[in-house]
């Protein structure tokens, strides 16, 4: 499965849950990467997904800096 197919699969799963934390970690990473990229370019994007965006920003730091106590 290529990256696009993985993303679409995760996006479909995301649309069925209440928040991103209910996804498996690999889907969290893909969706968070997407959310963070969009939120950086378009701050109004975060209005509807504020909790997920906040989680993704924390999640992104954990992924990018493993072993750092936060």
Descriptive overview:
α1 (about 5-15) crosses α2 and α2 crosses α3 (about 50-65). The chain is globular and about 30 Å long. The chain contains three helices and no strands. The chain is mainly α. About 65% of the residues lie in helices and about 0% in strands.
Topology:
Layout: H1 3-14, H2 25-41, H3 50-64
Helix pairs in contact: 1-2, 2-3
The tally of strands reads: 0
Shape: globular
Q: How does the helix and strand content classify structurally?
A: mainly alpha
Assembly context of the chains: single chain
Order of helices and strands: HHH
Unreliable runs: 63-70
Q: Which band does the percent of strand residues land in?
A: under 5%
Mean pLDDT over the residues: 82
Number of helices: 3
Helical percent range?
55-70%
Rg over CA atoms? 12 Å
CA(first)-CA(last) distance: 34 Å
Instruction: Report the biggest beta sheet as strand number plus sense, adding barrel if it closes.
Output: none
Please summarize what this structure is.
The chain has 70 residues and is mainly alpha-helical. The chain contains three helices and no strands.
Which descriptors would you attach to this protein?
70 residues, mainly alpha, 3 helices, globular, disordered C terminus
């Amino acid at each position: 499965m290529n990256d696009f197919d993985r993303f679409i699969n995760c996006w479909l799963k995301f649309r069925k849950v209440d928040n991103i934390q209910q996804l498996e970690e690999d889907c969290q990473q893909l969706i968070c990467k997407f959310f963070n990229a969009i939120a950086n370019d378009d701050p109004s994007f975060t209005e509807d997904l504020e909790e997920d965006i906040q989680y993704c920003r924390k999640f992104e730091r954990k992924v990018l800096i493993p072993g750092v106590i936060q």
